[in-house]
Amino acid sequence: MAIRIAVAGKGGTGKTTFAALMIRYLIENRRGSILAVDADPNANLNEALGVTVERVIADILDATKNPRTVPQGMSKDMFIQYQLAQALVETKGFDLLTMGRPQGPGCYCYPNDLLRKHLETLSANYDYMIIDSEAGLEHISRRIIQDVGFLFVISDASVRGIRSAGRVRELVQELQLGIPKMYLVVTKITGDPGPLKEEIERTGLPVAGFVPYDEQVVTFDAHGRPLFELPSDSPIVQAVTSILNKCLI
Ligand SMILES: Nc1ncnc2c1ncn2[C@@H]1O[C@H](COP(=O)(O)OP(=O)(O)O)[C@@H](O)[C@H]1O
Ligand SMILES: [Mg+2]
């Protein structure tokens, strides 16, 4: 089974950036095959990775609510499974699945069940599954993605970000998600993170490391350039590498 690593935290803190650089790290260190899952409703992992996504899971599940979309002679289950398989974007270094944002109201229990099974079957083909999630951990809390082994909670260098990270940890405990390894990563550091020390301790999360504010990332994002093209000696790539060298052993 794939080693499942989730990244979560408040919007705008740098989750997608961290997830993309982790995928880059795994590729460069030849750690094995990778399934990237963009589980943030505000999906943009594909942009950080430089790939185009045609279909997202939410649209497929929404479409299957209308029985007329199912071709004659095909069962609904088979049809959904076929569609889910089409949503996988395959690239040289990794494959990517984008969840998207469910549109319509109503119950998703049935498709979610299928999605859970699909993800289980799919992830068996990979060494790593990297999940870019939002702070509410939607897919993990609803057990669509299970057995997460590592959770990196991302915060920017603000009290609000750190408190939000603390709430992610509380959520994991309340829901008894049983994630064995959880870490805090503080990003966009511009000065001495000392004043945040107490707030960081209150989260109860061990600090995996600090990521400096790196102007180059902003420039890359502004031009829609994939983060894979950041130079290896850039401060952010160096910081993420040292965090992962330490944590992913
Ligand atoms: N270490 C960093 N230094 C400078 N800018 C960063 C850093 N990490 C992320 N950013 C910028 O912050 C913004 C939000 O990052 P993103 O990874 O999309 O956050 P999230 O996925 O948490 O919403 C982006 O414009 C990104 O370029
Ligand atoms: Mg994001």
From TrEMBL:
Pfam families: CbiA (PF01656). Coiled coil: none annotated. It comes from the Bacteria. PANTHER family: CARBON-MONOXIDE DEHYDROGENASE ACCESSORY PROTEIN, SEPTUM SITE-DETERMINING PROTEIN MIND HOMOLOG, CHLOROPLASTIC-RELATED. The gene is minD_4. GO terms for molecular function: ATP binding; ATP hydrolysis activity. This is Septum site-determining protein MinD. It comes from Neomoorella humiferrea. SUPFAM superfamilies: P-loop containing nucleoside triphosphate hydrolases. GO terms for cellular component: cytoplasmic side of plasma membrane; cytosol. One of its GO terms (biological process) is negative regulation of cell division. Residues 6-226 form the CobQ/CobB/MinD/ParA nucleotide binding domain.
